[in-house]
Amino acid sequence: MAGNDWINSYLEAILDVGPGLDDVKSSLLLRERGHFSPTRYFVEEVITGFDETDLHRSWVKASATRSPQERNTRLENMCWRIWNLARQKKQLEGEEAQRMAKRRLERERGRREATADMSEDLSEGEKGDTVSDISAHGESNRGRLPRINSVDAMETWANQQKGKKLYIVLISLHGLIRGENMELGRDSDTGGQVKYVVELARALGTMPGVYRVDLLTRQVSSPEVDWSYGEPTEMLTPRNTESFKDEMGESSGSYIIRIPFGPKDKYVAKELLWPYIPEFVDGALNHIIQMSKVLGEQIGGGKPVWPVAIHGHYADAGDSAALLSGALNVPMLFTGHSLGRDKLEQLLKQGRLSRDEINTTYKIMRRIEAEELSLDASEIIITSTRQEIEEQWRLYDGFDPILERKIRARIRRNVSCYGRFMPRMAIIPPGMEFHHIVPQDGDMDGETETNEDHQASPDPPIWSEIMRFFTNPRKPMILALARPDPKKNITTLVKAFGECRPLRELANLTLIMGNRDGIDEMSSTNSSVLLSVIKLIDKYDLYGQVAYPKHHKQSDVPDIYRLAAKTKGVFINPAFIEPFGLTLIEAAAHGLPIVATKNGGPVDIHRVLDNGLLIDPHDEKSIADALLKLVADKQLWARCRQNGLKNIHLFSWPEHCKTYLSRIATCKPRHPQWQRNDDEAENSETDSRGDSLRDIQDISLNLRFSLDGEKSGTSGNDSSELEGNASDRRSKIENAVLAWSKGISKETRKSGNPEKSDQNSSAKFPVLRRRKHLIVIAVDFDTTTGLLETIRKVFEAAGKGRTEGSVGFILSTSLTISEIRSFVVSGGLSLNDFDAFICNSGSDLYYSSLNSEGGPFVVDFYYHSHIEYRWGGEGLRKTLVRWAASVTDKKAENGEQIVVPAEQLSTDYCYAFKVQKPGMVPPVKELRKLLRIQALRCHVIYCQNGARLNVIPVLASRSQALRYLNVRWGVEISKMVVIVGECGDTDYEGLLGGVHRSVILKGICSSAMNQLHANRTYPLSDVLPSDNPNILQTAEDCSSEDIQVCLDKLGLLEN
């Protein structure tokens, strides 16, 4: 280690006061245990970049106390290991820089291709459009919202909402959520997000036009947490009794609904919740369906009242909201709170963990994929600041600010976007309760107005705790409230204060840096910041001018703000970057002018409040000058205080909810489509014959009946048959719709013959609704031979239940309906052995026909209207064809094609491609990424061990089709048993989670694990529940008896 004597000596010096470093790596991973280790701190600081002048100064001090000859082998070895870690960090940084460069190139290429498709030029006005939706508070000082009376504006808006009765669903899964006495800070999962979602639900429930708000979360019945978290329902009482809500109902208001999922008696960290998300979705879906019926009886005239929006908070809830949005066909909103890609970037820059180690610890890739899916599915992404959009969301494949601007411009011009979609970004800062805050008037000399009846209350205890630090406590107080984290930049603030003599003479500095018992018990990073502050106080001799109390309660914070305002002080947030800056709003509400960083959310807050100054957090002089200007200029101080108090209502909860509901109102209403049509048909008993035929033609657009089950125009072989005799087609449509979809013809209803009515009623619903249990065969084979063999085994295993009709069967596959008909008939089976067919990987749904004259299948076209959200259509197809050609150009030898379009296998909602050489095609994650970069939203699935590629709507899948059956026909998911192989198509993971039961046929389709799932974004083990009692495995090469044993254990067979 020649040439590094200075660092060796420094290492040796800190070894005298810290424990030995037996395992550098493990100590880094365990750095949050709360015990301060100078050694560990030094290692981290060297790796992240330490100021060499400080190191050299420490070396000089250490060299004076110990001879170089006394160094031992352990010290030399540790030094080498530290620098080895530093080299690894540099290597990781280099790799990350290459990845970022590759990402930029991919995005530019995708943008060019998307723009080439959308070839019309933008006008000059459109080129200047903003990247995202203008903030609720305007985009510049000149465009700031007018300062109007808050109460008058709210009353005007409230009058406009009368008559609306909205049902809103919020989702926040992790942490401990309850309405009162929230345990904020109990762990990393129970923080600011918990408080925000509870207060949002509470505030929305009091808004005019909102009838009910449900906040869905996890039910935790564990001895390690309070019993209240196990209560299924909790009503949120309004904070402000003078709310605008003037109409209450039996089920109105805001509620916390706790859905049981995951381990029943265990509190689970958010990183470990992923395998249980489908279970939550099924439970939440059941609750929403039941609540919609209840609300329908109360306020909907008997028709279900579906949610106007489902709002997911954080990645896990975003993933859940996307699945629920697809199952119910209602709009989705999403708030990230903190984003996975941003966290990944920060962790990689630190260099302490490799990408694989980060994913193992935080399940970060699963989180990122959930956030990408949220971008695919959301109508609106709600953010707190513009910085979140421009610096965090733009890291994602599914959001490009430049492409978003082009798409927005084309939408305004009513010009086609060729299947491209981008969610709208809405900046809505979090709300606050201000009605209980009384800004402090008077000063420290007792100028507060009092009278004989109301004597001045005694000073809060926290005031004396702070003022005991000061020689002159009546000087204006500069207040900083932040935890001792390097990112909060407190040391720079202390340096700025210490360097500016005029500022020291005019003001005191108060640092509220969390709570502590002893420095040694703090985490290494926090203790290092606190020690640096203490050293700076000593360096600049700031004793009597700086307060840093050890303890304060959350309830003391308003009193701290009041004390600062009483001294005519200033609040400062000097963080290097501040995502939002809630403390700035709190300070303004108490009448404090602000000084804040110019990086991040404070810019938006200052734009609205205009109550202070922005500073460069790296510039000590900028900080000192801004503080001195506000403290010294009393007129400026008073003007800033007045502006803050005047505009603070724009950050209130009512204002937040008003903007929030206005955004929801811009979403195109979506809900299950069959509800309106069915009800209209049921109620129109006096229509004429001609009207009846017109109704049938309208219905036939959504529910068409054909001889072979294929859609019109899906293949060349079927078009000639469908273009046959027009009267024949009309007759078949009429009979099919009347017999199957409605069951009872209008003539029968008019005649009032109950006997005929009973005879036809059995045809009103598909037969699967009458089954006690449903077996879903979803085994993914390369060939139909293996699938036929498995079907026979399952039929035999079902035994008596099949013959008696208590057990029904659904075939769920990547095959088309024509392929299914061909192999079922050729295999000696009957199509009527199945109640339903989920085809084309979940993009088509057919039922066995109850009318033998018309044909074997009925296609559910309501299902198509249910899944068509953001379907790219022809624009998507052209992009896929280009992609297939590019794969052939790059990897083919001798002109041999690798991926070719399969027109005969494609349908309106499934574009199929044959893969000639599965080993040469990019993994599914690469194709998904390419399409997202071009703003094309879809679900990409490799099927049949990689021999076929199906591209279907983004919220369609085989598992989602089962949820559709629950919503459409009331078929309980818990009564389903899904039969799968040991692996399968790339949508395999969706078939195993949820409240349904599963049987895994060991040894079947196991080759797909290496072929299709080897190069996944995240490992299957991250999302498959390992301890689920509803999942059973058979032995290798199972027989029908083995399957029967599993079905019996799952309670499917009575005998």
From TrEMBL:
Enzyme Commission no: 2.4.1.14
Pathway(s) where this gene product acts: Glycan biosynthesis; sucrose biosynthesis; sucrose from D-fructose 6-phosphate and UDP-alpha-D-glucose: step 1/2
Stretches with biased composition (Basic and acidic residues): 93-115, 744-758
Domain Sucrose synthase first GT-B: 167-433
Region listing for Disordered, in residue ranges: 93-143, 441-460, 671-692, 707-727, 744-763
Domain Glycosyl transferase family: 472-645
Keyword Chloroplast appears in the UniProt entry: no
Reactions listed under catalytic activity: beta-D-fructose 6-phosphate + UDP-alpha-D-glucose = sucrose 6(F)-phosphate + UDP + H(+)
Family: Belongs to the glycosyltransferase 1 family.
Protein name from the UniProt record: Sucrose-phosphate synthase
